[in-house]
Specification:
The chain is α/β, with parallel strands linked by helices. It has three domains: about 5-240, 4-Layer Sandwich (Glutamine Phosphoribosylpyrophosphate, subunit 1, domain 1); about 245-450, 3-Layer(aba) Sandwich (Rossmann fold), CATH 3.40.50.10490; about 450-609, Glucose-6-phosphate isomerase like protein, domain 1 (Rossmann fold). It is built from 18 helices and 27 strands. The N and C termini lie close together (about 10 Å).
């Protein structure tokens, strides 16, 4: 989950490298550093903490730099500290490496190198890479040394390496961790996320697993670990540099919450087939005949994407009458996860690089499953592994807590459910009503954003709590999970989402005047049951904040505050309900003085286990 950036070319190298990793800081912010190439040598600067200005001494030292590599860290091996910050060098200081991932066999490699007298200065697995390259390097053939080192590494990695003997070039390698590169003849740039490359060019090359290469302004050369040349075409990134800025908002999280009316439109654009009352999902490569042959759907995901998958399950089962299984990707990967005959496997990941989701997807493919991907990043690993699926078109999401990607996932799952349902016999009249409701969502989302004062009031009331409950039924139970997760992620209030019917099976013991409960009661089908739950909470002195449907007064006399959602089919309620829950988490975090864009211990894309 670390951020990697490299640059060779004209300009202020230090400022370019620093700005590059600043754009990647959502991937890790425990420590940072850079190594710059200068005539005949390398200079290294490292610091604990956030990306900030470097010392004047280092700036003076590096005025003649031709390029370099930089890194912002999310710690795995070794505590956050200056000694563990990247880049790491070999004993001579002529080879420098930055790395994202986990080298699983670093301990035996480290022991073997130490036995040969190699000195280690850090606790990281990354330092092993630099020493291995140096061990194999004969002073002339850096490519051969890099390849030999890669062949003995086990685990996930994205690596950028530079050497004092090879000015004007950066060496790259990828295995299960994202890495992109670009060159124009005037400069060369590489990063662990295309967003850091976009200020220079929108045409990027995505390295594949088991590939390594040499990047220079005049070209990118790639090979696989069998030492065979690899050809890869550049892909055009579908966003620009303006999408990477806060755009006047205080935080990326707030900006991305407010982008949701537009990202809902983007997720639907070109996909509503009014003539046939269905969704046009050409990226799936599924015919109606193939849908009718399906016997089940299995969804693989982690975190927020898993919550979206749970809501998708209810949509598909109620609309298409197909059984759906939703697995935590890691549990499927390491358990006895089996795919069903005549089933479809759907992997959901915002980044398309989530390590466990990728591994689970590959296991499903190994078992012969038909796979589809739902992700946000064009050219990502999930997209390439599946070869078929649906993009969210939400644009870059830089807030660590996912917001707009979640609602975009729900919109895409709604379209997917409609497509399956129509193929399985959903009546035309029902499909038309569902399409009408989908088209109303952007305006309704805009209306929810105008109620921020109401969400601020609830956030203020909850901000002093140590614990909170979120309860819901049916479609709103997974939304309760997501609301609780958002509160935990950014405000550090411990929160738990539970099915409302389970309240009496244990959790009601927690209810007291210090425990606020957020009640999600906007669905019409289970309103009476939710009202009963609220009475049970209130009779035990619990505080209640409710989310209800407009025009519903069932909670008015029972809750301290009630937020009203625009009327929508129960299946689409979570799309609208997510917005106030995101805002409650955001404002509660502000009240508590938390950094909502850089929550402690978290990073954006979980690309390592």
């Amino acid at each position: 989950m670390c951020g990697i950036f490299g640059y060779v070319g004209q300009g202020d190298i230090l400022d370019i490298l620093t700005e590059g990793i600043r754009r990647l800081e959502y991937r890790g912010y425990d420590s940072w550093g850079l190594a710059v190439g200068r005539p005949g040598t390398l200079s290294v600067f490292r610091r604990k903490g956030r990306v900030e200005g470097m010392s004047p001494e280092f700036r003076r030292e590096a005025t003649d730099a031709w390029g370099g590599i930089a890194h912002t860290r999310w710690a795995t091996h070794g505590e956050p500290s200056e000694r563990n910050a990247h880049p790491h060098t070999d004993a001579t200081g002529r080879i420098a490496v930055v790395h994202n991932g986990v080298i699983e066999n670093f301990e035996p490699l480290r022991s073997a190198l130490k036995a040969k007298g190699v000195p280690f200065k850090s606790d990281t697995d990354t330092e092993v890479i630099a020493h291995l390259i140096a061990r194999f390097y004969d002073g002339a053939n850096l490519r051969a040394a890099f390849l030999k080192a890669l062949r003995v590494l086990d685990g996930a990695y994205a690596i950028a390496m530079t050497c004092a003997d090879c000015p004007g070039e950066i060496w790259l390698a990828r295995n299960s961790s994202p890495l992109v590169a670009a060159q124009t003849g005037e400069f060369a740039v590489a990063a662990s996320d295309a967003g850091a490359v976009v200020p220079f060019t929108r045409d990027v090359v995505y390295l594949g697993d088991g590939e390594f290469g040499r990047l220079r302004p005049d070209g990118l050369m790639l090979w696989n670990l069998a030492d065979e040349p690899v050809e890869r075409e550049a892909k055009t990134v579908d966003f620009d540099v303006a999408d990477m800025d806060r755009g006047g908002y205080t935080h990326f999280m707030l900006k991305e919450i407010h982008e949701q009316p537009q990202t809902i439109v983007n997720a639907m654009r070109g996909r509503l087939d009014r003539a046939n009352a269905t969704a046009r999902l050409d990226g799936l490569g599924l015919t109606e005949s193939a849908v009718r042959d399906l016997r089940s759907v299995r969804i693989l995901a982690c975190g927020t994407s898993w919550h979206a998958g749970l809501i998708g399950r209810s949509m598909i089962e109620s609309m298409a009458r197909l059984p759906v299984h939703v697995d935590y990707a890691a549990e499927f990967r390491y358990g006895a996860g089996l795919v069903e005959r005549d089933g479809l496997v759907v992997a959901i990941s915002q980044s398309g690089e989530t390590a466990d989701t990728l591994a689970a997807l590959r296991e499903a493919k190994r078992q012969g499953a038909r796979v589809e991907g739902i992700c946000n990043v064009v050219g990502s690993s999930v997209a390439r592994e599946c070869g078929a699926g649906l993009y969210l078109h939400a644009g870059p999401e830089l807030g660590v807590a996912s917001t707009k990607a979640f609602t975009s996932q729900l919109v895409v799952l709604s379209l997917f459910s409609l497509f399956l349902a129509r193929a399985c016999g959903m009546p035309l009249s029902e499909a038309v009503r569902f399409l009408d409701a989908l088209e109303a969502l952007p305006e309704q989302a805009e209306a929810m954003l105008k109620k921020s004062a109401d969400t601020e009031g609830i956030a203020h009331a909850m901000s002093g709590a140590r614990n909170a409950l979120y309860i819901g039924r049916q479609y709103e139970y997974p939304l309760a999970l997501e609301g609780a997760l958002k509160l935990k992620e950014v405000s550090y209030i411990h929160a738990e989402g539970i099915p409302a019917a389970e309240l009496k099976h244990g959790p009601i013991a927690l209810i007291d005047p210090e425990m606020p409960t957020v009640v999600l009661g906007a669905q019409s089908a289970v309103l009476d049951k939710m009202t009963t739950n609220v009475r049970e909470i209130r009779s035990r002195g619990g505080r209640v904040f409710a989310v209800a449907r407009e025009g519903c007064d069932a909670f008015d006399a029972l809750a301290e505050r009630v937020l009203a959602l625009p009327s929508a089919p129960d299946a689409l309620t979570p799309i609208l309900g997510a917005i106030p829950l995101q805002l409650i988490a955001y404002y509660a975090a502000l009240e508590r003085g938390c950094d909502v864009d850089r929550p402690r211990n978290l990073a954006k894309s979980v690309t390592v286990e």
